[in-house]
């Protein structure tokens, strides 16, 4: 009987092969491999990736962003991918190939591009910027001549944070935008002598973008495409508005009191080197893999140089070339950077000792909510390092609710002032009080915005871009204060003086 069975299989081997193939395909459809989207995980990682998946379930719900994408890399291979929600205006489903605006993660890519030129012998780190940009100038000409490539990479040039904010988010769409942006620094004074201390400023990486253009003979976008993106097979990354739109990028959303509002903020070609590169989670995973396994684009020596603690930012917090270097709670080196734009927020983390890399991209932002994605990134990191992630709990945003409360109080005062016209208040003291109140209201109306800008050390342009709800609450406060001032003065003018009363 057994011989007949084997004989039947031999004579009908083609049919048996077809049936087995169909059963195999059916089993894959019913029981897909756990990491089908992101590569294969080692047996010991399965529980970690499942824990990350469950953690993201809660994080996605609490973040409340319209769309996002995550990727995990382990020892040179992407092992996990997850995307959720929708893109911008078209409301397409987000995938791991959806391009997001990555904010200051652009700085890591710009530094990578500079190191490519260093490897090729076209740029030296210890020479002044003016050797490559003879036209580069600042109000202090001597100081400008002393700033080196190393100093702009490590953000120790002395250029101020406000200088970087003043040139940012201009919405330029032409190919000369980066050059024009750097030339605008000619009117921005240094905050410190070059080399003295770390001052995080977009201005530094705008300068590096101009250096790339001058040395390569290409636009920044062309250089990044030909020398970085293509070499790493980053097919969903771009550095100009035209290229970004061609690969499917759309403006994201701005959080207004927790509500998702479609963003009207345009892409800025001039900001690409420091904050306006677009990329996908799968592409940034490839970039992390290139950092883990150097040699394909830049050498191991240059890669290592990028992540050395070149300058101290504060205790146990350092800056390298486009990367921040700190430590985890367990003492492992943590190399990372965060990215923020008016309508997107991102995190990228590399843990070189354990071999893990994390990419998190979302298409919504508000400066008051930025810490939330950092909390999620840290939670994922804890899971990957074998610790239990702290339960996701976002701190209340007191600034936002204080502003809302202030507007409500001023509205109540306005209503009270309007109703007070029905009551007679005909003493000299009360007339004087109304005049005083009017002066106080007008003074406060004139001080609210200057005080806010002094406390935050940024321009009103930046406040309105990154904190739109707070900005509009402040404007409402100014409007109500001014209305109350007008009403108080009108009230004072309608109350007769003592002399008028005596004459009557």
TrEMBL record:
Top-rank taxon, per record: Bacteria
Keyword Transmembrane helix set for record: yes
InterPro entries membership: AmpC-like (IPR050491), Beta-lactam-related (IPR001466), Beta-lactam/transpept-like (IPR012338)
Alphabetical UniProt keywords: Membrane, Transmembrane, Transmembrane helix
Record's keyword annotation contains Membrane: yes
TM annotation in the entry: 401-420, 432-453, 473-490
Pfam families according to UniProt: Beta-lactamase
Entry-linked SUPFAM superfamilies: beta-lactamase/transpeptidase-like
Domain Beta-lactamase-related: 54-371
Protein name: Penicillin-binding protein
